[in-house]
Amino acid sequence: MSQLRHIGPKRTEALGSLGLESVFDLLTLYPRRYIDRTRQVDLSDLVVGDEAAVFGEVTRCSSRRTGQGKSLVDVTIVDHGATLKVSFFNQPWRASQLSTGVQAIFFGKVGDFRGTRQMTNPVVDVVVGASGDERDASRVGGIVALYPASGKAGVTSWEMGGFVEESLRRAGPLLDPLPEALRRDHSLVDRTAAYWGIHLPREMADVAPARRRLVFDEFLRLQLLLALRRRRLAETAAGVRHPFDEHDLDVAPGALATSDSSLVRQFLAGHRFALTRAQRRVLADIGRDMASALPMHRLLQGDVGSGKTVVALATLLMARDGGRQGALMAPTEVLAEQHAAALRADLAGLRVRDDAVLGGERDVVVALLSGRVKGRERATIVEGLRTGAVDIVVGTHALLSDDVTFRALGAVIIDEQHRFGVEQRASLRDKGRAHSEEGRDPDLLVMTATPIPRTAAMVVFGDLDRSVLDEMPAGRRAIVTTWALAPDAVDAAWQRVRDEVAAGRRAYVICPLVEDSERVAATSAVAERTRLATHELRGLSVGLLHGQMKSSEKDEVMAQFRFGEIQVLVATVVIEVGVDVADASVIVIEDAWRFGLAQLHQLRGRVGRGDAQSYCYVLGEPPSEEGAQRLAALVASNDGFALAEVDLDLRGEGTLLGARQRGRSDLRLASLRRDEEILNEARAVALDLVAGDGLDANAELVDELRLFVDAEEASYLFRS
Ligand code: ADP
Ligand code: MG
To answer: Does the C-beta of 309 come closer than 6 Å to ligand 1?
Structure first.
């Protein structure tokens, strides 16, 4: 980079502070927006009341204090002979930023001050600094690209454009790894045109095709890497072939099953309900994966209440049918305990063969291993996992501790995966590999109730196969959601709580997320419980659940709530995921705007799990438009996937991609919202290239991909 003209040590440092260390970094720092000087409003045409972006050179700059002691910076700008006055209150730094000779864009509303037009506190983008801009400033005309955060590091947009221009000129025509035929088929301009067009467009019409090409490249790299990872996994991993007969899935409750039948069949024959079509389809996907020699690597998405638990159970039984163990990992102790209890109840009476016991047959053994299980009890379970006396283990991340080993781990299920890091997922799989015969990979199923829009799933979980439970069990009634804002409406919400409790059902009250601190949240929950128990809900049995309580206390409270000794449970978001109490029919969420949309939908999913009509009330007045839109969206829809799309619109993809997006593979230009079509095209091209020999034959593309992965992964993916 320092080989570029005008980039000495000082500039290198300034650019470094923007994360720009190579010419590649520079070329992929894309303009935030453009000003088209040819279509610029003339200063002389400005009318009071207009909101406008104007360009001008500072000819005068003075600062002083007003009568009230506020700082005031007055600036005069000139463009094409016309002038405009710009004033800044309480922004003393403007005096040094906008010294004479600086050229900048000013965005704001034109006001009138004693008969002269002026702008007050506009947004400012410095384009050309007063000095130090070696690039010929008199040429500021045509279209000017504005770069993000360039002002902060003391590098102007104009200078940045100059660096980019010099890099591009020196580089000459850029290597284009995409064959021309492919570019033609997908209407993609070549790389050289793309970089020139995005940074130095001659007209605005140059920008869109340039962007299209660069977005395509970003998606293509990502999809190629995902496709390669899958291919290598398929080549290198050895899975376990579990026996699976798809006909077993058609077994309805009450059907015939003998102790010779598979456990899956016995289980379904004795179960409380028949599978939904979606559950059957998903289990068929899973069964095929389990039976194949490749390890399963599958994501199961299903909205809250869609019935993922049964799918998990049947999957664990498939592993046991193959003579192997199954592990289910849940993100919290409450959930792990709930799963263990449900599994034990549902599996009661199922017999498995075991030559180690008298008679050669015994009950299925389900163990719970959470952080709370200690001492002797824990030692027994750990020993049982090692010898195979335990068939299924349900636990928290306690399952990952070093002394936990398996006789033969056949299936791993991770519930509510967004709570676990990618590393934890991998770590449980590695454990399976280490503790199954011949180092085979256990089958892996990741379950999530957080609906992810299709485009995002393609990017974030592109290396997993995907199954979706897109159908609710029959007879489920939509939850009636009300945004209670006026005092009357709030009263009605509490009245509903009292009515439902009087009818023998139960209620949740969710306390606001005060800060990102469980301790503070707990304090507020304690206070709210006291308040409700003495006011709105006087006379009812009101319990409390928060993250600062001991596990044993939490269990106790959950059990009391389940059995109705506690009628109303005041809780923090600890109950957000998975908690299943069928008799709960109303949930009140206080200061609901503080929660994200996905989280609100999760919370709402705590009710509506039984036969009764259920209700959700969201309280509180959002201080922002965005907060109001979230609540309105929640009221309007019960469909988690639809809400996920809304959420993506409201928040952008940054939050969504989170930790999975790291390093240089970041999508810098691409938008999952706007560019779905390009993503589809790029994915298809990537799959094609990897399936055929298109990639092996394209050394340039492979070299480029190497830039986006670390050395270790490169040698794994590209075998060199
Ligand atoms: P989630 O996907 O949120 O984990 P659960 O597995 O907890 O959903 O199921 C939600 C509720 O629906 C539970 O009470 C469960 O017993 C019930 N359920 C699941 N599958 C069916 C089905 N096929 N028919 C009827 N009820 C079902
Ligand atoms: Mg669940």
So the answer is: yes
CA–centroid distance, residue 349 to ligand 2 (Å): 23
Nearest CA to ligand 1 atom 16: 307
pTM across the whole model: 0.69
Determine if ligand 1 sits within 6 Å of the CB of residue 567: no
Q: Is the dihedral of CA 591, 597, 598, 602 positive or negative?
A: positive
Distance, CA of 687 to CA of 227 (rounded, Å):
6
Cβ proximity of 373 and 293 under 8 Å: no
* Structure confidence by residue, pLDDT tens digits, 234-291: 777 777 888 899 999 998 888 877 777 899 999 999 898 999 999 999 999 999 999 9
**How do residues 615-671 score in pLDDT, each as one tens digit?**
999 999 988 888 899 999 999 998 888 888 787 777 655 444 443 433 334 677 887
Residue 151 has pLDDT above 70, yes or no: no
Strand ranges in 493-565 using DSSP code E only, listed in sequence order: 506-510, 542-545
Residue 136 to residue 157: CA distance in whole angstroms: 13
CB crowding 536-562: b at 16 or more within 10 Å, else e = bbeebbbbbbbbbbebeebbebbeebb
Query: Does ligand 1 have an atom closer than 6 angstroms to the CB of 307?
Result: yes
Name the residue among 598, 576, 601 with its Cα closest to residue 481: 601
Q: Which residue's alpha carbon is at the smallest distance from atom 27 of ligand 1?
A: 473
Q: Which residues contact 442 (CB under 8 A, 6 or more apart)?
A: 240, 295, 319, 324, 409, 410, 411, 412, 429, 432, 433, 436
Alpha-carbon distances, residue 264 vs 242, 314, 328 (angstroms): 12, 6, 17
